Each structure stands twice: as structure tokens, then as C-alpha cells.
Amino acid sequence: MTPYLILSLFALITGMVVGSFLNVCICRMPKGESIVTPPSHCPQCDYRIRWYDNIPLASYLLLRGRCRGCGTSISIQYPLVELLNGLLTLALFIRFGPTVEFFVLFIFCSALVVITFIDLEHQIIPDEISLSGIVIGFICSFFLQGHSWLNSLLGILLGGGSLLLVAYGYQWLTGKEGMGGGDIKLLAMMGAFLGWQSILFIVFASSLVGSVVGVTMMLIQKKDSKLAIPFGPYLAFGAVLYIFYGRQIIHWYLSMGNFVKG
Q: FRET label pair with 241: which of 102, 135, 199, 233, CA 20 to 30 Å apart?
């Protein structure tokens, strides 16, 4: 096995191990509980989960998705988060290699995983993640090549400011709140990590996908436009899409425009 394959496997395993911790954050943060204590335990019978029952993905399969203590079904969310974070980490390693950029984006994408699952279930985005993420993203801008502190600062202002204007505009037109403060802070965090150039792409991609999914859900559930749909997961999707394919998509779009003009 080559050193590159060994490092790739290590990245995958590391991502899944961190994913196990992300599950703790997803379950406890909305309740205001500590993510450090008490140790992992079954929410039904309080059985303290041993290390051999906490191996990412493998333990879920060996236990057949049930608690060793009481036999209660374990949510599919646990292995899903572990696998998702593992695959994201592997993809980042393949894309960026063992670089500072990989490490920074690993932190960023792990935070997006937590935000996505919390927002899907509770329709909230914890300030502990978004606000601290803005600070961390800005600090990291000093250590990344091709990403200056000014780029990060403009990303924070453009990201938070653009959604803030949308929120005020929607409220002024309809008299109703249509955009939560959590989404505004989340986009500011994305601007801090990815720079101001990413904001338009993320907003467009997330709005497009969110509109398609939202309309589909309303048709399936036969509900009107008042159906509350969390926007955080779509912003997260747009950010991840930008990391891997954003520049290529923008270049393709601009080249198509030049082709049409020609």
C-alpha cells in the first residue's frame, strides 16, 4: 500500500471518528447540554457506551442498530453522520492533500455537518458554531495562501449583509419574518472561511436547490407556501459545492456567456 493510500485511509477514519463526536454535538447542543460530560450513553436506559460499542460505523453494524443495554433502536443518524463526515474528509484530502487548507476546510465542513442535522430537526443554527466560526475563519485567513484577511472580512460583511437585506426586504413586503438570524450568521461564517467571492455562488446554488426541494415537498405534503423549510442545509450544500466545483462552474458559466455573445 502506497503512502498516499495510507494517508487517504487515515483521513477517512479520522473523519468518521470526528463524526462520532459530531453526533454528540448534534444531540446535546440544541438542549444546552455539555458536549464533554457525561460520557456517551443511551438516552433510553442510560447505559454507558463502552469504547468497543463506539467504533464509528462498525459498532452500529455489529449491534444491528440496537443498544447493548436495553435493545432500543439506535437512530440511523449516528452512522450516517460518521460516514458523511468520513467521506467529506476523504474528498478534502484528495482535493487538497496534507495542507493547511485541508485542515481548515476539514474544521469548516465538520461544523457544516453539525449545523445541517441540527437545523433539519430543530430549525435552529447554534450561535456557538456560527459566531465562533466567523472568528476562526477570519483567523485562519492569515495562514492560507491566496486568501487574505481582507478577503475574509469582506466575505463576513457581504455574507451577513446580503441575507440581512433579504430578511428585511421580505419582512417589509410581507410583514412576516422569512429568514432567521441563524442563516445570516451562517453565511457570514461561510464568507469568513471561503471569502467574498463565494457568497453569490452559495446564495444562488442554495436558493436553486432549496426552491426545487421546497416546492416538491409542498406538492407531496399538499401544503401551501407557509411550510417552514430550514435553509441552513441548503447553504451548507452550496458551500461544499463551491469548495469542490465552484470555480469550475463559474468559469463554465462565464465561458458560456462569451460563447453566446460570440
A: 135
Same domain, residue pair 50 and 163: no
Whole-number Cα distances in Å, 185 to 13, 194, 212: 31, 14, 24
Task: Identify the residue with better confidence: 180 or 104.
Answer: 104
Q: Buried (b) or exposed (e) across 101-115, using 16+ Cβ within 10 A?
A: bbebbbebbbbbbbb
pLDDT over 70 (residue 215) = yes
DSSP 92-114: HHHHH-SSHHHHHHHHHHHHHHH
Q: How confident is the model at residue 179 (pLDDT cuts 50, 70, 90)?
A: low
**How far apart, in Å, are the Cα atoms of 128 and each of 115, 119, 190, 208?**
10, 14, 15, 28
Cβ atoms 82, 56 nearer than 8 A: yes
Query: Domain end: 50, 73, 95, which one?
Result: 95
What is the pTM for the complete model shown? 0.90
Identity at 131, one-letter amino acid code = L
Which set of grid coordinates corresponds to residue 93? 484530502
Q: What's the whole-number average pLDDT of the chain? A: 89
Give the per-residue pLDDT at 16. 97
Looking at the fold, whether 127 and 236 belong to one and the same domain comes out as: yes
Burial (Cβ within 10 Å: 0-12, 13-18, ≥19) of residue 195: buried
pLDDT of 162 over the 90 cut: no
pLDDT confidence of residue 39: 86
At which residue does the C-alpha cell 487548507 appear?
101
